[in-house]
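Students often ask what a holo structure prediction actually looks like on paper. The answer is less mysterious than it sounds. You provide the chain, you provide the ligand, and the output is a string of discrete structure tokens encoding the 3D arrangement of the protein together with magnesium ion.
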Amino acid sequence: MYQAFLLKYAEIGIKGKNRYKFENALCEQVRHRLGKIEGSFRVTREQGRIFVEAEEDFDFDDAIQAMGRVFGVSSISPVTVIQQKEWTNLTQAVGDFVEEQYPEKRFSFKVKCRRSDKGYPYTSPEVCSEMGGYLLNRFPELSVDVHQPDVLIWVEVRDKAYVYSKVYRGACGMPLGTNGKAMLLLSGGIDSPVAGYMIAKRGVFIDAVYFHAPPYTSERAKQKVVDLAKLISGYTGPVRLHIVNFTDIQMYIYEQCPHEELTIIMRRYMMRIAETIAKETDCLGLVTGESIGQVASQTMQSLAATNDVCEMPVYRPLIAFDKQEIVDISEKIGTYETSILPYEDCCTIFVAKHPVTRPVLSVIRRSEEKLADKIDAMVQEALATREIIDIDE
Ligand code: ATP
Ligand code: MG
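The corresponding structure tokens follow.
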């Protein structure tokens, strides 16, 4: 029934001279997503909108879902294309549209028009009032309500004419690739996939690093992280996942340092290693799923101690979120069910009974001096032996 879709975008409209770059990035992402479903689509942009025309049969729900994942799109409307926009044909076609879309006619409506063909014999207000009159005449059960209509019927007159009335909410945010790339520290928990999704939503491509500690963490725990990366790539685009073997480093810290400082020191080494990979791969920042006060390693003092080793900005999009708010997003994006699978987490294997909650930086640095003999070589080894998996939805 529908042959085309009209996509609207909000925020990128304000980008001045750079606007075309954002629009091109947006079209590219729409093409990329649609390329993954059956059918062939033509994506064009025109005056603050994107038109997607289907060139062959396609699945409507798949198309809506695919476009609904493109960051930067604020709404998606299925539209019917009217090849002959000459007035009698236009009214007839809009009437047919209402006929088919709304079998039950007892509703109020209002016609809205946008006209980019300035040579068209009717102005926009004329299209609205004349079309309204035509529809009332053809379907006497309808009524007009210009203030709070049940249905808004949009008519756009361009080279062709278009009619639509349904609006699906888009993913909003900014098109991927318009804001560089960042390195996500991805664990198997609930928070970090959500953090990655949120940063990607601002137009940032995501790569990820996972610290694996075999045999203390199992292959299944690793597979869970791969699965989570796959799930977020449905929004963020392809993700290059670096899997770093952290066992030796973790054991060495465990042997040399006070146990109540273990988590903080481990987190510091994770950040150092993630930053090294991030620098090698043109990332402009690190991303974590931390949130103030959630656990001992996320108090303000602990965050300061973790942050201390980073030169790059560390983005923590969940910093002020409550757990339930994070859970709600993870359910919405479809990562929750995977995140709660009960596999061991390398952070929790050697957790002390009473971890420090107010680490003092000078004390932590002093403890780390006990690692001086071997730690640099271990970090080099961990970097050199990392496994890289390219993940796409
Ligand atoms: P999450 O649900 O994301 O695992 P969490 O509440 O369990 O978070 P922590 O385990 O303290 O919190 O980890 C804080 C952040 O550190 C995580 O959100 C993630 O960004 C990073 N992180 C923790 N463990 C790992 C790991 N094994 N590999 C990669 N990143 C990790
Ligand atoms: Mg965790």
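The radius of gyration is 27 Å.
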